[in-house]
Design goal:
Layout (H helix, E strand, L loop, with lengths): L8 H12 L3 H14 L4 E7 L5 E6 L6 H6 L27 H7 L2 E7 L4 E7 L2 E7 L5 E7 L6 H5 L4 H18 L4 E6 L2 E5 L6 H9 L1 H5 L1 E7 L3 E8 L11 E5 L2 E3 L2 H9 L13 E7 L4 E2 L10 E2 L2 H16 L63 H9 L9 E6 L3 E6 L2 E6 H18 L5 E11 L2 H9 L1 H7 L2 E4 L4 E8 L6 H4 L3 H13 L7 H16 L9 H12 L14 E5 H7 L6
Parallel strand pairs: 1-7, 11-13
Antiparallel strand pairs: 1-2, 2-6, 3-4, 3-6, 4-5, 7-8, 9-10, 10-13, 11-12, 14-15, 16-17, 17-18, 18-22, 19-21, 20-21
């Protein structure tokens, strides 16, 4: 007798459930996506014990008749694709027909649905249909999932903590609400409302519901298109960033997806505007012909592959840069009253929305409309003048992005204090000078003419055998910079000349040229897998600029401070040092008066 046999349907469904339903969030995701595909305008998600006890999703979609209500629990039962060609032109969120079969095989499911003509209730336990009966005629569908993983205790045991599972559910609902601002979403956990959008089709308003008013005020709209892709959405100003990538939301044809490479490109667009180990908040929707994208990589349908990916990356990068490069990026210091929570608020809970201010539709205004320009930091400062001399300088520096400011003095031998008629500026002297030097060095490297300077004493450097192999493979990068390098014995090189632009580095005057060259070569050897030559030159320029710049705790003359301020205002990006730290922050007159209790009280 043969050893091979066909598994029964219940066993195969449990195995499939391991891919589709890994945690409580996956159940919420599959049910909500079905509701969206059913043309719902209102979707209510209720969970108990982070979804382990109960998950209930109610919508007002088109509903199903009795036959479809029963058939939808079958494996690979779907209304969304019929032929192989449909697989390459997917326009719905769901299409595999695995979700309900997988969910019902590891839980107790009650389905109530109506298409307005007939109401049906189906009860399924452990993948087996227990009862089918008539139900009420309320338009839409309600699916209740109870006792998740009751028949697979090993999987239930390995679920994360209550708060981790609930956080994952909340994160997904937040993201899907950004995908469909035209749908009213509500998320309720153990009777507490965690999210409640209004379905007004205002993406910025949904950002406010999720991240708060302060973040929404600091979001910038982006748009762009090429022959294949159209992108739209909002990205945060560089001053708004987080320690993780959770705030980076990428959508493809209104589907929440994840693509590590695309996230890297988005983060790199902020290069030199923020620290590299911090990440922006972004909501970017990519519209593309379904035939150019593959979402059928994993049963969760969150991983995605693109055709013409390089063109997409270029579009995303340029669109973000276009959005942030021409706005005033000086962080503003806001005076805020400290609010002490009530005693009951010290309890650990996730009910964060009850105290949130409620906005009526007629009261909410888009901060990008003209009457709301105060939401942008210092937009009114570009034409500021103080004296006749300042006015004349403004005429000569009409392209400056940073407003005119008069140097007043220095604090702690580190910060330059400036002023104009609208408020006070505090400038980090090292960060400011670093930005000036970075742009000078970077310009020289961009327009390099391969001119070299001979060393009086050639430098010999020895490497391990693996490092030497990598260096030999990439030796042309160093010669292109202007280095004259030759092999010298076993696993060694001799450097006879270096590019002229290195001569301007303060390292040279400190006798540290050999250290400089070794660090540059180390960058070549330890370059990232996704190596980008421009980023490499950026890194070198930033490193050189840092060493060239005046340090903190250095007393400067008034003339030296004025020179730094003047040079900074001529920079292409005067708002951040090449490592992303702010060069200057701003205290408006109004905020200073608030701090000193002179107004608004």
């Amino acid at each position: 007798m043969g050893k091979i046999h066909v598994m029964d349907e219940l066993l195969s469904n449990k195995i499939a459930a391991g891919e589709v339903v890994e945690r409580c969030m996956n159940v919420v995701k599959e049910l909500v996506e079905n509701s969206i595909d059913a043309e719902s305008t209102e979707i209510k998600i209720e969970v108990k014990d982070a979804g382990t006890t109960m998950i209930k999703v109610t919508d007002n979609g088109i509903g199903m008749d009795k036959d479809d209500a029963v058939m939808c629990f079958g494996l690979h039962a779907t209304s969304k694709i019929k032929t192989v060609d449909d697989l390459f032109n997917i326009e719905t969120l769901g299409f595999r027909g695995e979700a309900l079969a997988s969910i019902s095989s590891v839980s107790e499911v009650t389905l109530k649905t109506s298409n307005g003509k007939v109401g049906t209730e189906v009860i399924v336990i452990g993948g087996k249909i227990e009862e089918v009966k008539e139900s009420d005629l309320r338009q839409g569908t309600t699916i209740t999932v109870k006792n998740l993983f009751f028949n697979t205790p090993a999987r239930l045991k390995h679920l994360k903590s209550y708060y981790t599972e609930l956080a994952n559910i909340t994160d997904y609902v937040n993201k899907i609400s950004l995908t469909h601002p035209e749908i009213k979403f509500s998320l309720i956990s153990d009777g507490n409302t965690l999210l409640n959008t209004d379905g007004s089709n205002n993406l910025l308003k949904n950002i406010k519901f999720i991240y708060g008013v302060d973040i929404a005020k600091r979001m910038v709209p982006i748009s762009g298109e090429n022959e294949d892709y159209t992108i739209s959405g909002f990205v945060s100003k560089p001053e708004v960033h987080r320690s993780n990538k959770n705030g980076m939301v990428t959508l493809v044809n209104n589907r929440v997806v994840r693509n590590v490479e695309l996230n890297r490109i988005i983060n790199e667009a902020y290069h030199s505007y923020k620290p590299d180990n911090r990440y922006p908040i972004t909501v970017i929707n990519i519209e593309v012909d379904p035939t150019l994208v593959d979402v059928n990589i994993h049963p969760t349908k969150m991983d995605v592959k693109f055709s013409k990916f390089e063109e997409l990356c270029e579009l995303v990068r340029n669109s973000i840069l276009d959005a942030i490069k021409d706005i005033n990026l000086i962080p503003i210091v806001e005076a805020k009253e400290k609010v002490y929570p009530k005693p009951e608020q010290y309890e650990l809970n996730l009910n964060i929305s009850e105290e949130e201010p409620k906005y009526e539709k007629e009261e909410y205004k888009n901060p990008y409309e003209s009457e709301q320009q105060e939401l942008f930091i210092n937009d009114e400062l570009d034409n500021t003048i103080i004296t006749k001399e300042a006015k004349e300088e403004e005429v000569n520096l009409q392209t400056d992005k940073m407003p005119y400011m008069e140097v007043v003095g220095q604090v702690l031998a580190t910060y330059i204090i400036c002023r104009n008629e609208t408020g006070m500026y505090v400038m980090d002297q090292h960060a400011a000078k670093e930005r000036v030097n970075y742009e000078i060095v970077r310009e020289k490297m961009s327009n390099r003419d391969n001119k070299s300077m001979d060393l009086l004493v050639p430098i010999t450097i020895e490497f391990s055998n693996d490092e030497y192999i990598i260096l030999k493979e990439n030796l042309s990068m160093l010669t292109d910079m202007g280095f004259n390098i030759e092999e010298f014995g076993i696993n060694s090189i001799i450097i006879k000349s270096h590019p002229i632009w290195l001569q301007s580095s303060i390292w040279v005057h400190n006798g540290e040229l050999e250290t400089v060259i070794k660090e540059l070569i180390d960058m070549v050897i330890k370059r990232e897998k996704n190596f980008d030559l421009d980023r490499f030159y950026d890194h070198i320029s930033a490193t050189v600029a840092c060493k060239m710049s005046v340090k903190a705790n250095t007393i400067l003359t008034m003339e030296e401070m004025e020179e730094i301020v003047k040079d900074l205002r001529k920079c292409k990006n005067p708002f951040n040092c090449p490592h992303g730290r702010p060069t200057v922050i701003y205290y408006s007159k109004e905020e200073l008066e608030k701090l000193f209790k002179r107004s608004g009280f």
